[in-house]
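sry for the spam today, last one i promise. C-alpha coordinates for design, 211 residues
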Protein backbone atom coordinates (compact mmCIF):
# COMPACT_ATOMS: atom_id res chain seq x y z
CA UNK A 1 0.00 0.00 0.00
CA UNK A 2 1.45 3.35 -1.08
CA UNK A 3 2.16 5.91 1.61
CA UNK A 4 2.57 9.69 1.41
CA UNK A 5 5.87 11.08 2.56
CA UNK A 6 5.10 13.89 5.06
CA UNK A 7 8.35 15.62 4.08
CA UNK A 8 7.64 15.68 0.36
CA UNK A 9 6.02 19.15 0.53
CA UNK A 10 2.46 20.44 0.66
CA UNK A 11 -0.31 18.82 -1.24
CA UNK A 12 -0.93 20.21 -4.71
CA UNK A 13 -4.23 21.73 -3.59
CA UNK A 14 -2.44 23.91 -1.02
CA UNK A 15 0.02 25.45 -3.47
CA UNK A 16 -0.78 29.13 -4.00
CA UNK A 17 -0.91 29.92 -7.73
CA UNK A 18 1.13 32.85 -9.01
CA UNK A 19 -0.59 36.18 -9.29
CA UNK A 20 -2.11 36.88 -12.64
CA UNK A 21 -1.22 39.97 -14.64
CA UNK A 22 -4.61 41.55 -13.92
CA UNK A 23 -4.23 41.15 -10.14
CA UNK A 24 -1.04 43.22 -10.21
CA UNK A 25 -3.00 46.43 -10.96
CA UNK A 26 -3.89 48.38 -7.84
CA UNK A 27 -7.42 49.52 -7.15
CA UNK A 28 -6.37 53.14 -7.50
CA UNK A 29 -4.92 52.58 -10.94
CA UNK A 30 -7.93 50.52 -11.99
CA UNK A 31 -10.22 53.33 -10.88
CA UNK A 32 -8.25 55.79 -13.00
CA UNK A 33 -8.50 53.48 -16.02
CA UNK A 34 -12.30 53.33 -15.68
CA UNK A 35 -12.46 57.10 -15.18
CA UNK A 36 -10.41 57.74 -18.31
CA UNK A 37 -12.69 55.37 -20.19
CA UNK A 38 -15.67 57.55 -19.30
CA UNK A 39 -13.69 60.65 -20.27
CA UNK A 40 -12.85 59.08 -23.64
CA UNK A 41 -16.55 58.53 -24.32
CA UNK A 42 -17.29 62.13 -23.35
CA UNK A 43 -14.68 63.45 -25.78
CA UNK A 44 -16.04 61.09 -28.42
CA UNK A 45 -19.46 62.72 -28.06
CA UNK A 46 -17.87 66.15 -28.53
CA UNK A 47 -16.06 64.97 -31.65
CA UNK A 48 -19.33 63.55 -32.96
CA UNK A 49 -20.99 66.94 -32.47
CA UNK A 50 -18.10 68.63 -34.28
CA UNK A 51 -18.37 66.31 -37.27
CA UNK A 52 -22.12 66.78 -37.36
CA UNK A 53 -21.58 70.53 -37.67
CA UNK A 54 -18.93 69.99 -40.31
CA UNK A 55 -20.68 67.45 -42.52
CA UNK A 56 -24.31 67.55 -41.45
CA UNK A 57 -25.15 71.23 -41.73
CA UNK A 58 -26.45 72.14 -45.22
CA UNK A 59 -24.62 74.85 -47.10
CA UNK A 60 -21.20 74.19 -45.57
CA UNK A 61 -18.96 74.07 -48.65
CA UNK A 62 -15.65 75.25 -47.17
CA UNK A 63 -14.03 74.46 -43.85
CA UNK A 64 -13.45 76.30 -41.64
CA UNK A 65 -16.71 78.00 -42.66
CA UNK A 66 -17.26 81.65 -43.51
CA UNK A 67 -18.01 84.22 -40.87
CA UNK A 68 -21.13 86.45 -41.09
CA UNK A 69 -19.13 88.88 -43.27
CA UNK A 70 -18.21 86.20 -45.79
CA UNK A 71 -14.57 85.79 -44.70
CA UNK A 72 -13.31 82.29 -43.96
CA UNK A 73 -12.28 81.57 -40.40
CA UNK A 74 -8.53 81.01 -40.05
CA UNK A 75 -7.02 78.68 -37.48
CA UNK A 76 -3.36 79.13 -36.44
CA UNK A 77 -2.13 75.73 -37.58
CA UNK A 78 1.60 76.41 -37.28
CA UNK A 79 1.54 77.98 -33.83
CA UNK A 80 -0.84 75.33 -32.56
CA UNK A 81 1.37 72.65 -34.11
CA UNK A 82 4.33 73.97 -32.12
CA UNK A 83 2.12 74.06 -29.04
CA UNK A 84 1.19 70.45 -29.73
CA UNK A 85 4.86 69.48 -29.76
CA UNK A 86 5.29 71.24 -26.42
CA UNK A 87 2.49 69.19 -24.89
CA UNK A 88 3.78 65.94 -26.39
CA UNK A 89 7.26 66.73 -25.05
CA UNK A 90 5.77 67.05 -21.57
CA UNK A 91 4.71 63.39 -21.71
CA UNK A 92 8.27 62.35 -22.51
CA UNK A 93 9.78 64.38 -19.66
CA UNK A 94 7.28 62.90 -17.21
CA UNK A 95 7.92 59.38 -18.46
CA UNK A 96 11.68 59.93 -18.19
CA UNK A 97 11.39 61.06 -14.59
CA UNK A 98 9.20 58.10 -13.67
CA UNK A 99 11.52 55.67 -15.44
CA UNK A 100 14.58 56.95 -13.59
CA UNK A 101 12.76 56.74 -10.28
CA UNK A 102 11.22 53.31 -10.67
CA UNK A 103 14.29 51.61 -12.12
CA UNK A 104 17.10 53.46 -10.38
CA UNK A 105 15.45 55.12 -7.40
CA UNK A 106 16.53 58.54 -8.68
CA UNK A 107 14.22 60.95 -6.84
CA UNK A 108 16.10 63.98 -8.20
CA UNK A 109 15.40 62.92 -11.80
CA UNK A 110 11.74 62.40 -10.92
CA UNK A 111 11.53 65.88 -9.43
CA UNK A 112 13.22 67.46 -12.43
CA UNK A 113 11.05 65.59 -14.88
CA UNK A 114 7.89 66.67 -13.09
CA UNK A 115 8.99 70.31 -12.88
CA UNK A 116 9.74 70.44 -16.60
CA UNK A 117 6.44 68.71 -17.36
CA UNK A 118 4.47 71.24 -15.30
CA UNK A 119 6.32 74.11 -16.99
CA UNK A 120 5.58 72.73 -20.47
CA UNK A 121 1.92 72.14 -19.59
CA UNK A 122 1.56 75.69 -18.28
CA UNK A 123 3.21 77.00 -21.45
CA UNK A 124 0.69 75.06 -23.52
CA UNK A 125 -2.20 76.65 -21.64
CA UNK A 126 -0.72 80.14 -21.99
CA UNK A 127 -0.35 79.74 -25.76
CA UNK A 128 -3.89 78.36 -25.99
CA UNK A 129 -5.31 81.36 -24.13
CA UNK A 130 -3.33 83.71 -26.36
CA UNK A 131 -4.84 81.93 -29.37
CA UNK A 132 -8.34 82.55 -28.05
CA UNK A 133 -7.62 86.28 -27.84
CA UNK A 134 -6.58 86.49 -31.51
CA UNK A 135 -8.96 84.01 -33.16
CA UNK A 136 -11.52 86.60 -34.17
CA UNK A 137 -14.60 84.53 -33.29
CA UNK A 138 -16.33 83.46 -30.08
CA UNK A 139 -18.55 80.58 -28.95
CA UNK A 140 -21.54 82.80 -29.75
CA UNK A 141 -20.49 83.41 -33.36
CA UNK A 142 -22.06 80.28 -34.87
CA UNK A 143 -22.16 76.49 -34.57
CA UNK A 144 -18.51 76.21 -35.61
CA UNK A 145 -17.43 78.59 -32.88
CA UNK A 146 -19.49 76.74 -30.29
CA UNK A 147 -18.08 73.31 -31.11
CA UNK A 148 -14.53 74.63 -31.49
CA UNK A 149 -14.48 76.34 -28.11
CA UNK A 150 -16.25 73.41 -26.44
CA UNK A 151 -13.65 70.93 -27.66
CA UNK A 152 -10.56 73.03 -27.06
CA UNK A 153 -11.87 74.63 -23.87
CA UNK A 154 -12.91 71.34 -22.31
CA UNK A 155 -9.50 69.92 -23.14
CA UNK A 156 -7.84 72.98 -21.64
CA UNK A 157 -9.79 72.35 -18.44
CA UNK A 158 -8.40 68.82 -18.38
CA UNK A 159 -4.88 70.19 -18.80
CA UNK A 160 -5.47 72.48 -15.82
CA UNK A 161 -6.70 69.54 -13.75
CA UNK A 162 -3.66 67.54 -14.82
CA UNK A 163 -1.32 70.35 -13.79
CA UNK A 164 -3.03 70.46 -10.40
CA UNK A 165 -2.59 66.72 -9.94
CA UNK A 166 1.07 66.82 -10.96
CA UNK A 167 1.70 69.79 -8.65
CA UNK A 168 0.24 67.85 -5.71
CA UNK A 169 2.36 64.82 -6.60
CA UNK A 170 5.46 67.02 -6.89
CA UNK A 171 4.79 68.45 -3.45
CA UNK A 172 4.59 64.92 -2.04
CA UNK A 173 7.84 64.00 -3.75
CA UNK A 174 9.73 67.09 -2.53
CA UNK A 175 8.41 67.75 0.97
CA UNK A 176 7.12 64.38 2.17
CA UNK A 177 9.69 62.23 0.32
CA UNK A 178 6.69 60.15 -0.63
CA UNK A 179 6.56 57.17 -3.00
CA UNK A 180 9.13 54.48 -3.61
CA UNK A 181 10.21 52.44 -6.63
CA UNK A 182 7.94 49.65 -5.36
CA UNK A 183 4.92 51.83 -4.56
CA UNK A 184 3.89 54.92 -6.51
CA UNK A 185 0.24 54.30 -7.39
CA UNK A 186 -0.95 57.93 -7.02
CA UNK A 187 1.95 59.12 -9.13
CA UNK A 188 1.28 56.49 -11.77
CA UNK A 189 -2.42 57.33 -11.88
CA UNK A 190 -1.64 61.04 -12.27
CA UNK A 191 0.84 60.29 -15.04
CA UNK A 192 -1.70 58.11 -16.85
CA UNK A 193 -4.18 60.99 -16.73
CA UNK A 194 -1.58 63.36 -18.18
CA UNK A 195 -0.69 61.01 -21.03
CA UNK A 196 -4.41 60.62 -21.80
CA UNK A 197 -4.80 64.40 -22.02
CA UNK A 198 -1.85 64.58 -24.41
CA UNK A 199 -3.20 61.86 -26.69
CA UNK A 200 -6.61 63.53 -26.83
CA UNK A 201 -5.03 66.81 -27.88
CA UNK A 202 -3.03 65.19 -30.69
CA UNK A 203 -6.27 63.69 -32.05
CA UNK A 204 -8.03 67.03 -31.62
CA UNK A 205 -5.29 68.92 -33.42
CA UNK A 206 -5.30 66.53 -36.37
CA UNK A 207 -9.10 66.46 -36.75
CA UNK A 208 -9.90 70.13 -36.06
CA UNK A 209 -6.85 72.06 -37.25
CA UNK A 210 -5.39 69.89 -40.03
CA UNK A 211 -8.14 67.85 -41.72
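last one done:
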Amino acid sequence: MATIDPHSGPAPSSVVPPKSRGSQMSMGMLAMVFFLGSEAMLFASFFAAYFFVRFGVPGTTVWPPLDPEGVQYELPKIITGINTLILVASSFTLHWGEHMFRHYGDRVALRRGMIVTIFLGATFLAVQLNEYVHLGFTPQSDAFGSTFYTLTGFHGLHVLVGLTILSIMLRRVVTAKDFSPNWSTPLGAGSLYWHFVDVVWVILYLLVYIL
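The two ends are 80 Å apart (CA to CA). ok im logging off now
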